[in-house]
Amino acid sequence: xxxxxTGTLVTQEQIDRFMAKVPDHVVVVFDEAxxxxxxxxxxxxxxxxxGRNVVVLRTFSKIQGLAGTRVGYGIANKELIDVLxxxxxxxxxxxxxxxxxxxxxxxxxxxxxxxxxxxxxxxxLQCQFAALGLEFIPSYANFVLVKVGDGNAVFxxxxxxxxxxxxxxxxxxxxWVRISIGTMPQNERCIEVLKGVLGR
Length: 200
Description:
The chain is built from seven helices and seven strands. The protein has a four-stranded antiparallel sheet, covered by helices on one side. A three-stranded mixed sheet has the order 1-2-3. A hairpin with an 8-residue loop joins β6 and β7. It is 43% helix and 14% strand. α5 packs parallel to α7 (184-198).
């Protein structure tokens, strides 16, 4: 939450309603890879504090920019953590990745800057899509899902010009691409290439 690939948000009220119906013996996993991009994120940790069978997953791949290190973490009650520890591979995280994760946690300035750039870039891309008459899903994440016609063809044509977007056919959305938000010059280049590919 937010969802990949739509960028949509499940609200606190929706989560609470869902959790009220979940039997105590069922384990619920919340994937919060894009959590830091939210202004007012839902509080899923309250279920961990209450001792519910909940695992909250987060990553350093997104706002901290440490995708190559493959570092993330889970928060859960002690009993669930004990089970996960028994199945965890030994030495699954090297010292360099750990140092990067710690530095990422401590660098609030970088996180704030990344969020600001992402918020500005998201607003820019969505404004451009609207101006081009392209349907898109309003996003809370660091990407926007936009309908372009033949998603695979647009992906290939844009890649030929050095701009990588993600075709969504694997998600049963063949007319859509997911565009990650970059710096403003990158966003502007993306729109320029997209306009050319779509003939607009």
